[in-house]
Automatic annotation (TrEMBL):
MF-aspect GO terms: nitrilase activity
InterPro entries documented for this protein: C-N_Hydrolase, C-N_Hydrolase_sf, Nitrilase, Nitrilase/CN_hydratase_CS, Nitrilases_CHs
Family to which the UniProt record says this protein belongs: Belongs to the carbon-nitrogen hydrolase superfamily. Nitrilase family.
Protein name per its UniProtKB record: Aliphatic nitrilase
Annotated CDD domains: nitrilases_CHs
Native source species: Acetobacter syzygii
Domain CN hydrolase: 5-272
Length: 327
């Protein structure tokens, strides 16, 4: 059956100098603007609220303690004021929203992706499974429970953040759940043109391999923001370029002109008949798979630091931890 969903990949700059809610308000404003263009799925950049930790890329760890603590103060709790604001905007516009946030869970920050359904319900809260390079000094690790495709008003949605796309098994875990729309998020304004070039290759390849649409959003820093974050002209270069906000079809085709600088929206209509057209020729988890030769073990058990034996219904999949000397 023919089905068309209008999607928007939103390239946008954060609000750096407030309590963290300024960026969330900007997200909501963009949601209402997208609704005026009949958008039913909006994707925002990686850890956009309150902002991506650019400081960790250009400063040594022993110098960014103050900035890291500031990020703790402004980080998002789930549920909390930020998720309430975005949920209301999603509900009022009848829109599915994919948002990247810095999530605070007591003493740890996580790179978290939230999928809001058009009712405002949070369908998925997932954490980046392995922070990349400098990010390991900022965020904790997620687990396999977040590698989940969810049914939304816009279709079956999966999501990964940034270099998680270079983990082929993470991508395959989502493919096996038959994602129809893959929502990708990158920080943007980082590393330079080579990052944008790599991003294009990555998202177009996933679209082809998964046979799904990819909606990719990157952030954008203004010149004033770059100067403020860098504090030294010699450090400004790594905070420019690296933007490639785009929408890709299951055939690997760019459905609209990508956005590589400035704020704006890339909007395209996703015709779901293209999914079947692609998978008729090559279905990576169906007729093109050879599971008797190659298969994936996916541990979807949440990583919980403690299990209480007095819980009335302890999950039978949880095995007790034993010492080396025990059988």
């Amino acid at each position: 059956m023919s089905r068309i969903v209008r999607a928007a990949a939103i390239q946008i700059s954060p609000v750096l100098d407030d309590d963290g809610l300024g960026t969330a308000r900007k997200v909501c404003k963009a949601i209402y603007e997208a609704a005026e263009k009949s958008v039913k799925l909006a994707v925002f950049p990686e850890t956009f609220v309150p902002y991506y930790p650019y400081f960790s890329f250009i400063q040594p760890a022993f110098r960014f303690g103050a900035e890291h603590l500031k990020l703790y103060e402004r980080a998002v709790t789930i549920p909390g004021p930020v998720t309430d604001m975005v949920a209301e905007a999603a509900r009022e516009t009848d829109m599915v929203v994919v948002l990247g946030v810095n999530e605070r869970d007591y003493g740890t920050l996580y790179n978290t992706q939230i999928i809001f359904d058009s009712t405002g319900e949070i369908l998925l809260k997932r954490r980046k499974i392995t922070p990349t390079y400098h990010e390991r000094m900022v965020w904790g690790q997620g687990d396999g429970s977040g590698l989940t495709v969810v049914e939304s008003a816009a279709g079956r949605i999966g999501a990964l953040a940034c270099w998680e796309h270079y983990n082929p098994l993470a991508r395959y875990a989502l493919m096996t759940q038959h994602e129809e729309i893959h929502c990708a998020q990158f920080p943007g304004s980082l590393v330079g043109q080579i990052f944008a070039d790599q991003m294009e290759v990555t998202i177009r390849h996933h679209a082809l391999e998964s046979g799904c649409f990819v909606v990719n959003a990157t952030g954008w820093l203004t010149e004033e923001q770059i100067k403020k974050i860098a504090y030294d002209p010699a450090l400004e270069g790594p905070l420019r370029g690296g933007c490639f906000t785009a929408i890709v079809s299951p055939e690997g085709k760019l459905l609209a002109t990508p956005l590589t600088e400035g704020e704006g929206m890339v909007i395209a209509d996703l015709d779901f008949t293209l999914i079947t057209k692609r998978k008729r020729m090559m279905d990576s988890v169906g007729h093109y798979a050879r599971p008797e030769l190659l298969s994936l073990l996916h541990n979807r058990q949440p990583a919980i630091p403690v299990h209480y034996t007095d819980e009335p219904e302890l999950d039978s999949r949880i095995r007790p931890v034993v010492s080396r000397g025990e059988p």
